[in-house]
Amino acid sequence: MRQRLRRLKPRSLRARLVLGATLLATSAVLLCQAAGLALLHTWLTDQVDGRLGRFQPVAPLSRDVVDGRTTAGGIPGNHTLPSDYRVYFYDRDGHRLAGSLSGDGGGAGPRLPWSESALGLQDGRPATVAATDGGSTWRVIARSGADDTRVVVALPLTEVDEATARMLWFSLAVGVAVAAGVILFGSLVVRVGLRPLVGVERIARRIADGELQLSVPDRHVVTEVGHLSRALNTMLDRLRTALHRTEASEQRLRHFLADAGHELRTPLTSLQGFAELLVQEPEMTPQRRHEAQQLIVRNAERMSRLVDSLSQLAKLGDVPAMQWQRVDLLSLAADSIAAVAVQYPDRSIGLGALADTEGDPDEAELDVVDALGDPHQLMQILSNLLTNACVHTPPGTRVLVRVGTLRIRPNGQGTDVSDRTSANPPLAPGTLACAVEVADGGIGLAASDARRVFERFYRADSSERAAAGSGLGLAIASSAAEVNGGRLELDTRPGEGCTFRLLLPYQPAAASTSVPVSGVCG
Predict the structure, then answer these.
(1) Which of 172, 178, 393, 414 could pair with 397 as two cysteines, CB 3.0-4.6 Å apart?
(2) pLDDT surpasses 60 at 78
(3) Strand partners, 488
(4) Do residues 492 and 392 lie in contact, with contact meaning Cβ atoms separated by under 8 Å?
């Protein structure tokens, strides 16, 4: 049974709306008609009750019947009244007399009992009884007559029943007409009203089939369909963005795996070759054996550094820095210069103050530039930047490190402009930031190289000295800057050198007593 009902249940929204509107309209019409029918029946019945209450039987005739001049057994026929009334009499013993007063000369009348005890009528209160032939009902009223007799007056409800029946058929006809009209015109109205939704459905199907460049038209701005269209377009925009990001991420992952495999293959091939040489030629000269062993150790160290760099990149992407401390950036820069100068003694690395050229002269500068972050990661950022400057610039090129504070302004330091590259999001304009710049006087980078300088394994310099690196130093520095809540950016032009800038938002010391969630500068 339930399955049959489910099959009969309309599945389309249009059919459901039409069916619901038809049921509601028809129900409302039938309910109003039923109320009017009940009111009509009650009003007509009250009219009959009024006639019963105003009727008074003929007294002499009633007296003849009551006194016995015409007995129940000897009445030749009922007395006729010039109306449709029926009058019946009960004697003092409670028996109904055979004679009666009728207005239609006989025929079917009300079904009344022969005993007064079974009559059940109260004086002056009308009641409805059935007819003797099973036809229309009768309305009767009882009164007390002379000498303890009872008089029952009756009127037929034929006209009331006929009027009620006609009204009933009329109501059914109106209900059927309303239902047909609602189905006909309701289908048209619903079809026109759902036309924008049908358009949205068609576009959605095309999008589901793979046409992701489409958008849902939202011409109906103030309607529910317009709201739905805008919501679908917003969802589609986010979906397209997510798909583009996923494709870009997969592409970067493929390049990363290919580059990592290539970087690891070279030292592994060297290790395998020299190890096989030592095994296959056990009687080689000590000098050649020592040379092979040194090459094995050198390639092993290179592979170890590469694996450590990859591990550090993975940790920076998954785990935030936890060793938050206030670090003097000037002292940190001096320590980084001293450490790198040992590796590159022929380099001239200077240390100076950074002036905010676009700042307000009346704005007070900070006496001490200290940052709130992980000192080891900040130290590694500066070391990687200095090492990168020493490796990728010609010998004798001067490197200058500047430390200071500056205000982030639109199109200024810390924002994205045409000649600036960064893998980190820009800082909000108006932010006071602590900055460390590492500038060199080299040949600079082309725009195509500058855009990819923070990518993993990317090398803009193809020289033998640059190829010795892993191509991960700037990627590690950029990730570490973002973990500490800052930004690492590059300003460069061909022939004008490179300037790497580390920016950390300034925060007063009083506001940094608790450990922050992300790194900020203090």
Answers:
(1) 393
(2) no
(3) 502
(4) no
Q: How far apart are CA 521 and CA 484, in angstroms?
A: 9
Which two three-digit tokens encode residue 357? 């050229």
pLDDT band at 220 (very low <50, low <70, confident <90, very high): low
Q: DSSP 3-state assignment of 286? A: helix
Closest alpha carbon to 448 in 492, 388, 394 = 492
Q: What whole-number distance in Å separates Cα of residue 337 and Cα of residue 203? A: 62
The one-letter amino acid at 331 = S
% of the chain beyond a pLDDT of 90:
5
483-498 pLDDT, tens digit each: 888 899 999 888 888 9
- Neighbouring residues of 480: CB distance < 8 A, sequence distance ≥ 6: 316, 321, 374, 377, 378, 380, 381
The CA distance from 407 to 82, in Å, is: 115
pTM: 0.47
pLDDT at 366 over 80: no
- The whole-angstrom separation of Cα 373 and Cα 370 is 10
- Secondary structure (H, E, C), 76-114: CCCEECCCCCEEEEECCCCEEEEEEEECCCCCCCECCCC
Lowest mean pLDDT among 271-285, 305-319, 410-424, 435-449: 305-319
- DSSP secondary structure, 180-223, as one string: HHHHHHHHHHHHHHTHHHHHHHHHHHHHHTT-TT-------TTS
- Cβ count near 277 (within 10 Å): 15
